[in-house]
Amino acid sequence: MRVESFLRRAPSKSVSEDAIVLNEKINVYGVFDGATPLTPFQDEQGMNGAYLAANIFKDYFTTRYPENLSLVEGVVAANRLLKAHMEKYGIDQKKYEQLWSTCAAVIKFEKDGMISFAQLGDCMIIAEFQNGLIKVLTRDTVKDISYRARVWREELRKQGVRIPDEEYFQDITKQRFFNRTLANKPFGYSVANGTEEVGQFIQHGQVRGSELKAILLLTDGLFHRDYSLEETFEKIRNTSVSDYAIDLESHERKNGIRSDDKAGVMIRL
What we know:
The chain is of the alpha+beta class. It has helices at 49-64, 71-88, 145-158, 172-180, 229-238, 241-254; strands at 2-8, 18-23, 28-34, 102-109, 114-120, 124-129, 134-136, 203-208, 212-218, 262-268. The strands form two sheets. It has a five-stranded antiparallel beta sheet with strand order 1-10-9-6-7, with helices on one face. A five-stranded antiparallel beta sheet has the order 2-3-4-5-8, covered by helices on one side.
């Protein structure tokens, strides 16, 4: 088994809001993508809620995760730890825009030869099988969230709920505030944000390790506008996570595309 990883902050940020876990002791690997905050909170070290959420998950799966827990139970436990940290800092957890939150993709090599996976948000897991099939194992629940939010606002208006007209939501900040209210809702998106509902929205499953050639975990900063996730997998498989990421950064600079934090873990079996 060969493990490659890459983590780099976006040029516009002082620290990366992505994090990775490489826990070789118990064969747990993951990527986490903290959601950029909508409020100005910082802790004593000047870290915001996105950085803290991603790193609370990283630290949990690096040092606290008991090997006998399932990955789903581990995500739920890390989410409760996130809630406790927010309580410590007096975060009003009834206000979605104040919640620290992170997307997550974690895998665990089980002793019976299976590979378990658990996922939230738009951190993604892609596998290549021995027969050459490349399969995306998870669904990006953040994709098209602004469209679904607009549809939901229209439905609420039909129900008589007073909501500003769509001109109000042309402001991107107002859009984001509304989108955060859709966290861990059936018509919204999944994310670890300390709420109890998180447990209902964790995508999870297992694949047999002997059937795989490789498995890739990545945050959305490694998505390419011109490639599908399967094509992205092929690009990384044929080079490395770091080579692909550096090429993507160059493409983004040349085309004036905003660059995001980037995190990826490729495991070749």
